[in-house]
Task: structure prediction
Amino acid sequence: MSTIITVDIPADEFALQETLESVSDIEFEVERVAAHEGDSVTPYIWVTSDVLDQVDEAFENDPSIRHAELLETVDGSWLYRMDWIEKIELITYMLTEEEATVMDAYGREDRWTLRILFPKHDGLSRTNEFCENAELTFTVKTIHEMEANRHGRFGLTEKQHETLQTAIENGFYDIPRSVTIDELAGELDVTHQAISERLRRAHRNLVQDALLLGPPRDAN
Result:
């Protein structure tokens, strides 16, 4: 059974720690991991900061990376390709030994948060064991079993997914709206309050899932 997790990792146990420490208010968002070899991992990573000159200098002095190349500038963020060469034991293990996929990752201040797809649930257990043996911190925030709920990869329950899909199909999100919330409630045979609460929870779960932040999700 495939499993998707979100996990917190301390910045001092992962790549780019020194850049996070030296540049205030910098944020990293991994777009994708393009390749990995035995001694390096190559991500495409969005960088958000008000001081690009400090970022470039920090990259030059950060021993955990090499070959940082600016590829694109979009809306105040910069897309870099680089090689991670230090503090990558965990990500290398997951990619090579467990054939996991890093779906996305977010770094800010003192932590990284990763969303990871394991092809088999046992891969998560073995990764936990690997971290214990290597004395690495691996704090799992959420776990979604894909076969139990295929919409779980978006942070949604079945009811929430059904509600959003029905809302979209009936024009609830059109401008102007083609259906009222009462009409949507009638379509799903639930009360106005129930549909309103379900939509709010679904919206919150989608935003939390996209940002890799937030407390445990509601199951209603």
Notes: The two ends are 23 Å apart (CA to CA). The first strand starts at residue 3 and ends at 10.
